[in-house]
Amino acid sequence: MRSGGGSFLRKMSLHKFRKSASLSNSGARDETSDSDTASTQQEAIAVADKPSTVPPETQKVLLLHAVRQPYQLTENYPVPKLESAHEVLVRAQAIGLNPIDWKAPDFNFAIPELPYISGRELAGEVVQVSGAPSRLKINDRVLAISTDYRDLRKAAYQEYVVAFDYNTVRLPAALTAEQGSTLGVAFVAAALALGVCAGLDFSSVLEGPDLYSLIRNVSPDLIAQDIRSECLDSIRSHERARSGDWLAVWGGSSTSANLTIQLAKLAGLKTVAVVDKAKHGLRLANHHAIRTDLLVDSHDPARAVEIIRANLKGKLRFGIDVRGRESAASLLQALSPDNLGSDSDGAAARDAPPSPPSTPHDSSLLSAHLIGLTGLPKQAAPEGTLFHTVPIKLFHEVPEVGEALVSWLERLLAAGLVQPPEIIDVEDGLESINTGLDRMRKGEISGGKLVVKV
Q1: Which CATH code, of 3.30.830.10, 3.40.640.10, 3.30.870.10, 3.40.50.720, is assigned to 188-389?
Q2: CB neighbours of 444 closer than 8 A, spacing ≥ 6?
Q3: CA-to-CA distance for 261 and 275, rounded, in angstroms?
Q4: pLDDT tens for each residue of 253-275
Q5: In terms of DSSP bridges, do strands 368-372 and 385-389 run parallel, antiparallel, or are they unpaired?
Q6: Residue 249 in contact with residue 295, Cβ under 8 Å?
Q7: Which region, left, alpha or beta, applies to residue 342 given φ > 0 means left and ψ of -120 to 50 means alpha?
Q8: What was the pLDDT predicted at 7?
Q9: What pairing do the DSSP bridges indicate for beta strands 423-428 and 449-453?
Q10: Is the separation of the CB atoms in 390 and 189 below 8 Å?
């Protein structure tokens, strides 16, 4: 639980964020006079007296009534209401399915209440906006990214979805709704893993964010306590990933890996992908956006580690695993803390136990960093290596982070620098989501995305 002071600081951050948005959108004022001086708390929940359009009162949704049960199609369910400034209402047109959508009910996690509405990303059309200045307007085609799984208004498995405008991406005309629905959560996870956990600066890529610096310029009290250490203390400035460094991604065929590789390459990292080469090797090798510098077969994990170490010769300090604990443990064996005083192949760095980052004996020692998207090894991190979990809630809890990421993604998509993952198949209608999730359970969807048209 956060203290009342933290809550007040969060509202103040929202207030400053809105003032900045107002200045940058001077041509899109609401009906309230500039001379009005509502208090900070009032502004934080202010919504236009007259909605820009009138959505229906009820809708169809998918409800989960019990764990290990299929979702149930429910009609005449209330359409969610806008409750605070900078919220918009989106009419869903396409929903991207994610593994957590079936794993959460099957294994009983990330379900804060029952009945529950799931779904983390969708593309559609803005049908209502709040009274605050915003870069979004009615009829905008958008991607809404929901990382706040506790707010059912923002869940994707319904016809109308609430989203913060700083968690919503305008789609370029060249992208279909189905394509747009494939990349939201994967993009956020990739950007936070690289930008926060590895400290990678994206400012050289269409003026992307330097998340490492951005989060250090907001009050620490605005960052949830359970992720504060990861955000502020997990990597030292001189250890940050930089252009020319190597990054290995284990499970390189997933959509999260896809976006991770794309962003890493844009920022100048050299990349390794560990995948089932028989299933995905040709596709990765032939796709310029996700073609890696080294492609390794995952069939024999021990052999994969040997190949990585033999080719990179101790130069791999950053690894991202997208599969789970076992593969993360294998990736850990491929990492090498780098001592700048060692010989060129990094042997000294591997043979001599390094100092932990908190008490370094030598400032030239650079720790290795293992980032787990779905799990980390059961063992404690060895000396010279740090384990990281992605602080996903930064995206919706710190407006400056959310706005920086969605604005950057808009520019990347408009310029064609980020490509949506491949669509494996398209199901039709909310009622088909259970069928789609069953296909994912059986392992039928691999190397791309399953999408549902609404």
Answers
A1: 3.40.50.720
A2: none
A3: 13
A4: 899 999 999 999 999 999 999 99
A5: parallel
A6: no
A7: beta
A8: 41
A9: parallel
A10: yes
> Can you say whether residue 110 is alpha, beta or left, with left for phi > 0 and alpha for psi between -120 and 50 degrees?
left
Q: Which of 204-208, 346-350, 392-396 has the lowest mean pLDDT?
A: 346-350
Q: Is the dihedral of CA 147, 149, 150, 154 positive or negative?
A: positive
Domain ranges of the chain: 4-182+420-453, 188-389
> How much is the mean pLDDT over the chain?
86
Q: Indicate the pLDDT class of residue 432, thresholds 50, 70 and 90.
A: very high
> Residue 104 CA to chain centroid, in angstroms?
18
> Which residue, 226, 86, 97, 238, is CA-closest to 164?
86
Of 252 and 117, the one with more pLDDT: 117
Q: What span, in angstroms and rounded, lies between the C-alpha atoms of 391 and 84?
A: 24
Q: How much is the pLDDT for 253? A: 82
Q: Which residue has the higher pLDDT, 389 or 9?
A: 389
Burial class (CB in 10 A: 0-12, 13-18, 19+), 413: buried
Domain covering 4-182+420-453 assigned CATH 3.90.180.10 in the classification: yes
